[in-house]
Structure formats: structure tokens, C-alpha cells
Amino acid sequence: MIKKLISFIIVMAMTMTIAPQAAMAEVTELPPPEATAKTLSHSQISISWQAVENAQGYEIYRYNSETGKYEIIGSVGAETLSFINTGLKINKTYKYYVRVLLLAEDGTTIIKGATSLICSAKTVPAAPANIKYSVTSRKHIKITWRKVSGVSGYYVYRASKGGKYKKVKTITKAGTTSFSNSSIAANKTYLYKIKAYKKSGKKKISGKSSVSIYANNGMPYKKKFKVRAYAYTGKGNCANGKKAKIGRIAVDKKVIPLGTWLYVSGYGLCQACDTGVKGKKIDVYLSSEKECRKWGIKKKTVYIIGKKLPLI
Fold this sequence. Notes:
The structure is a single chain. A 6-stranded mixed barrel has the order 17-21-18-20-19-22. Strands 3, 4, 6, 7 and 8 form a 5-stranded antiparallel β-sheet that branches. Strands 11, 12, 14, 15 and 16 form a 5-stranded antiparallel β-sheet that branches. The chain has 2 helices and 22 strands. By secondary structure, the protein is mostly beta strands. The protein has 3 domains: 31-122, Immunoglobulins (Immunoglobulin-like, Sandwich); 132-216, Immunoglobulin-like; 223-306, RlpA-like domain (Barwin-like endoglucanases, Beta Barrel). 11% of the residues lie in helices and 46% in strands. The chain has helices at residues 2-28, 289-295, and strands at residues 35-39, 45-49, 57-64, 69-77, 82-85, 93-103, 110-115, 119-122, 132-137, 140-144, 153-160, 166-171, 178-181, 189-200, 203-209, 213-216, 223-232, 248-251, 261-264, 268-274, 281-285, 298-306.
């Protein structure tokens, strides 16, 4: 009788210890939240995650390098899928994970569920936004952007199309949000990007880069077409009375009216000032007979700009 009683007690004890473990195993097998960390500024990081089915809420944990442990820094309800960690130190990488909170089988107890993978982000100045450009002349491009809060200044980077970026300007005033670039070639496409920086002691902590913006200081044209291009030289005046020189070409005025500004590939910006050719042909002025012989007859594309130049 005593042996049977002892066996019964052992079986009951095993049942009581195994059952809760089995219930917890079911909780941890649920899909964990997928979390990501994103730098907002030199002192803020945003942690966001995907919703977990039947979640009652979420806890956010951050690694403490002093204790070597992850510690809870906040909790939110089931409808909230992000958390902003503020008051952080600049130029430091922070690690996080998110734990889902679930409802136990009794319908009242909140239990801790699965955790996300660890995500991390570094506190650096945010990327400047709203990058725009304007062209004030054929050799002048102005870049503007939105002010980044709490920074000390900005770096401006430029690249030719297909080339590498180089820093072309360091702006030392946080309130300056524009850069006028005049050391550029006409009719060319450039790329620009901006980084904010913040002083920390003797260091300048560079932030995330803005998106790249393409800026072209070329002229808008109305139409383009192919022509046969000849060359001529000599002294005298053109049909419109202007002196013959480089940049003044002969055209068929029925095809290209006199006074029209145009761009000829391989020759450059010019004006229709003379006549003497018929149809889709042009005669470009060069400085010597030798250059004219070297030019010969070429197939070129002309870009018709109009009677007035939009830029000088």
C-alpha cells in the first residue's frame, strides 16, 4: 500500500512539472517578431517590428555594455509596432531585441513569448533631405537642402556622371543649407550628395549621406535633327550683318531661321547668322583653311534652342 501511494505521488509530481513546460514550449515556437533598428539622429534610434498574431504587447531590450546584459527599456501595446530610444550618446552602436507578450491559456495571465533577432544602429547625424538644385548660368549650379537639427555643419560631395564622389565644400555653419558651385563645365551632368556632421570634442562625426541628385546645367532645346556639316573660314560679315567668327554658322533659313541659337555636337553653342546652304545642311565657321580641310564633311546632330538663350 505504501509503495502504491509513493508511486502515485511521483506520477502526480512529474505531471505537474511537465505540463507547464509543455505550455511554455508552445509559446516559444510561435514566430518571433522581425525587428529592425534605424538611425534617426545623433541621439535617437527607432526600433520597429512586424506584428505577431495574438500579441498582447511588446517589450524592447537594449544591450548594456557595462553589465554585459540586455535590459528592458520600454514596453508598448499590441497596436504599436515601433519605439524611439532617445537621449543616446553620439557615434555609438546600440543593440536591441524585441520580445512579444502573449496571453496564457487561462485567458488572464500575460506571459513572455519569443524574441526577435538582435538588430543594431549607430548614432550619427541624420541624412539631409529635400535635396534640390537650380541653374543660374551655364557654369553655375546651386544645391539646397533641408536643415538637420542639432548638427554643426555639412559636407558637400560632387561627382561627374559615372565618376567617383569628391568633397568640394565644408560648410561650417549649421544654418547654411545651400551651396553655389561655379567651378564646373557648361552643359554637363553632375551628381551631388550632402552629409551633416556634428562636433564631438575634437572630432567631427559625419552622418548618413543624402540621396544623390543629378544636376545638369545644359540648355533646354525645342527639337533636334541630323544634318550634314561643312566648314568655312575667311573675313567679312554674315548675312545678318554680324562679323563672321567661330560660333556663327551658315544655314538654310527655311530649315533654321536666322538668329536661332543652336547646339551642334562636336562644335558647340552657336547662332545661325549666315546663309548659302540648302536643306538640312550647315556650314560651321573655323579659324583656318587647315581646320576646314580637317573637318571635311560630317554628320552631326543639331539641338534647336530658340531665338533667346535661357542661360548665359
